[in-house]
């Protein structure tokens, strides 16, 4: 099928808008600058996109100032690519360096931007973040430097990134559509005896052929009657009649992730497995239908799903499950805030793209089953980005 | 061509050996434990392999004790998979958690392992490392906790990982062989008018078809007469007669990376481009031939290559170039220590797998060209893991 591809990249106005939102945080928190170090944050605010992040060798820094485009303090290998991004000044050093791999230059540039007084610096320090730099440099920056005071802006930056722009949504809609088609086609080429590793390999080839840029995430499992593990790489076991198997994949187009799975049975499935699948889809459907933008919280979604998954459990005395949540945000990263848990009170807003990912334990062997969909919270309710899974477990004959 | 695949995974003895080496560091540095947090280190010492690291949400911790297998402090979603690894105890929590996402449990477990006195904890804090946890938790662990004293073991751990075991080498040899074949086949299917993005997509499909598990890294560029950027994602520009283009790829088999590139010209190439390519390959060949295991250093390799690349420059007054080095280690990560720079005095030892990656500026427009090979340092000298590139730039007619 010929795909109609959206336009790649973003116009400058998109980054002006994103950085502008961060600058409002900067102003309201009375900060001198916000310092970013992770692939996702640097890409989000500047458009800098490269797989070079696979190399852990070099640190990269971006500084958001009170006004204008961000400033880059980066290894010289990245200057050429950074020039095409939403960036004001680029300061670079030849990295890797023996003694000072950028931290000295970063401190100098901060001095120039923020002045010689105590600098009030916003950093991402909280849940689901990581400051991507050697620990010795982090300590130099945060605790050994008396001229720098660090403030956590995790909540504010995550809140900005949670609401996707129309162009971001277009990319997410597209990647979810592509991967839905790959899953729809799967029963046409799968057969008994195919090793799980070959199934994964073929899945990736089909996804690339259809237009996916990459499949950075493809995990799953297969087993007679069910599976236990949901984050494992494939083994070389051939698929057998009676196996239930699941592929959970994060595919990327133009830097935006889909994140959903599909369950299949080969030949036949037990009644318990079929009921488990129906229960999962019911939980998802009820959660999706319940979405009232501006009112419903992630906690509400969690309870709606949990009530269907575990109707007999006292809802006021919930135990946490192994997966830890029933879904999350999705975008530049495979998993982003918020989380559908009993404690996340984030209110669902138009422009949020989320997964719904209920999981259930079933059968005498305590098999695990997970079903996942990707949803856009719209002005009026919701839109499935994925082609929704049918309630009945797909049995491939 | 039917490939003969090596066996996947490692026996337990491999991990006993690896952890044993870390325990010698622990003993000689008088440490109570070593704490690891990154994907590569956790995989290296326990065998825990999953693409679930794509999700930045949850922190993972592994503790190496003075004796026995390591202890895991991990999100419960990973327990099932961790059970199959070289691990003693597994402590888990349901993650993500609202207030304490594992750091409290980690401190408890450290208390149990190391006792209630001041704990001397080894961490990777130096160049090319990153402690993968929220900054607020890192601060709780390293600077706010008076009972924990942190010591940097970067050098020691990197030194252990630099020397590959026979089984690691087998995997690296295999992935380099596969990717060499993909590159060899490229002139058979490439043609004028093919957009660079389609070239990349087809390359990945060919690599998967031949047996590669994944292509996490594929960057490159094309341009009339040459290219400037070596870390960019592909654009949709069609290849034109007279273009010089380069693909640099890190492909993976069973968790081990190849990392090399190939340059091509479409139709024709300038004399300067051809000389640039010949110079790069000469530099590589001379460097490879110069390797005396136990004697030659990375710095020596740098100077050997630099002398050929820039014969007119005063070798005592070298300026750093934009790439920052002429090659590096390769293994579990796309780039690992050591680095072929003017300052890295690491002695090349049998079992090291390295890239040689000289780069050169040529022509009136200051085009950049990079050529890369993967080499095993053997007992007597070297072995090309890649099928070495011919000296002449490949011109595709």
Mean pLDDT of chain A: 95
CATH architecture annotation of the largest domain in chain A: Alpha-Beta Complex
Query: What radius of gyration of chain A results from the CA coordinates?
Result: 23 Å
Broad structural category of chain A: alpha+beta
- Helix count of chain A, per DSSP? 10
Which range best describes the helical content of chain A: under 10%, 10-25%, 25-40%, 40-55%, 55-70% or over 70%?
25-40%
What share of the residues of chain A does DSSP label as strand, in percent?
15-25%
Oligomeric grouping of the chains: homodimer
CATH superfamily of the largest domain in chain A: Creatinase/methionine aminopeptidase superfamily
| Regions with little confidence, pLDDT below 50 for 5+ residues of chain A | none
Largest interface: A-B, 79 and 79 residues
CATH fold type of the largest domain in chain A:
Creatine Amidinohydrolase
What distance lies between the first and last C-alpha atoms of chain A, to the nearest angstrom? 25 Å
Identify the CATH class of the largest domain in chain A: Alpha Beta
Task: Give a written overview of the molecule.
By secondary structure, the first copy, chain A, is of the alpha+beta class. Chain A has two domains: 12-161, Creatine Amidinohydrolase, Chain A, domain 1; 163-396, Alpha-Beta Complex (Creatine Amidinohydrolase), CATH 3.90.230.10. Chain A contains ten helices and 18 strands. The first copy, chain A, has helices at residues 12-28, 39-46, 79-82, 103-114, 135-142, 154-162, 166-189, 196-210, 271-289, 298-309, and strands at residues 33-36, 61-64, 71-75, 90-93, 119-123, 148-152, 214-224, 243-253, 256-257, 260-266, 328-329, 336-339, 353-356, 359-362, 367-370, 373-377, 382-384, 394-396. In chain A, the strands form five sheets. Chain A has a six-stranded mixed β-sheet. In chain A, helix 1 packs antiparallel against helix 6 (154-162), helix 7 crosses helix 8 (196-210) and helix 9 (271-289) packs antiparallel against helix 10 (298-309). The radius of gyration of chain A is 23 Å and the shape is globular. The interface between A and B is large, with 79 and 79 residues.
């Amino acid at each position: 099928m010929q795909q109609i591809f959206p336009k790649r990249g973003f116009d400058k106005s998109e980054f002006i808008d994103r950085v502008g939102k961060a600058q409002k945080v900067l102003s309201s928190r009375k900060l001198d600058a916000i310092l970013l170090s992770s692939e996702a944050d640097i890409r989000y605010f500047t458009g800098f996109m490269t797989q070079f992040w696979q190399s852990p060798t070099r640190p990269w820094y971006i500084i958001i100032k009170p006004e204008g485009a961000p400033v880059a303090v980066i290894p010289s290998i990245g200057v050429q690519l950074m020039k095409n991004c939403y960036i004001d000044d680029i300061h670079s050093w030849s990295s890797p360096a023996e003694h000072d791999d950028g931290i000295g230059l970063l401190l100098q540039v901060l001095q120039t931007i923020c002045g010689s007084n105590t600098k009030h610096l916003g950093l991402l320090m909280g849940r689901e973040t990581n400051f991507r730099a050697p620990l010795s440099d982090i300590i130099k920056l945060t605790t050994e430097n008396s001229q720098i005071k660090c403030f956590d802006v995790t909540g504010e930056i995550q809140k900005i990134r949670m609401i996707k722009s129309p162009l971001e949504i277009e990319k997410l809609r597209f990647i979810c559509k592509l991967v839905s088609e790959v899953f729809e086609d799967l029963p046409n080429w799968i057969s008994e005896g195919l090793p799980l590793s070959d199934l994964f390999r073929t899945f990736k080839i089909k996804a690339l052929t259809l237009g996916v840029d990459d499949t950075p995430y493809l995990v799953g499992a297969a087993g007679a009657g069910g599976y236990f593990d949901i984050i494992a790489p494939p083994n070389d076991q051939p698929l057998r009649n009676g196996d239930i198997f699941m592929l959970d994949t994060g595919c990327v187009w133009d830097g935006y992730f889909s994140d959903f799975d599909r369950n299949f049975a080969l030949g036949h499935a037990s009644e318990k497995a079929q009921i488990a699948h129906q229960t999962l889809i019911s939980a998802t459907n009820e959660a999706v239908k319940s979405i009232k933008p501006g009112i419903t919280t992630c906690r509400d979604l969690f309870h709606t799903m949990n009530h269907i998954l575990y109707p007999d459990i006292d809802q006021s005395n919930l135990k946490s499950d192994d997966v830890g949540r029933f879904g999350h945000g999705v975008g530049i990263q495979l998993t982003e805030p918020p989380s559908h848990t009993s404690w996340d009170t984030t209110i669902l807003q138009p422009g949020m793209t989320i997964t719904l990912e209920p999981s259930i334990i079933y059968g005498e062997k305590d098999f695990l089953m997970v079903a996942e969909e990707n949803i856009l919270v719209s002005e009026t309710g919701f839109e499935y980005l994925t082609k929704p899974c049918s309630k009945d477990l797909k049995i491939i004959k």
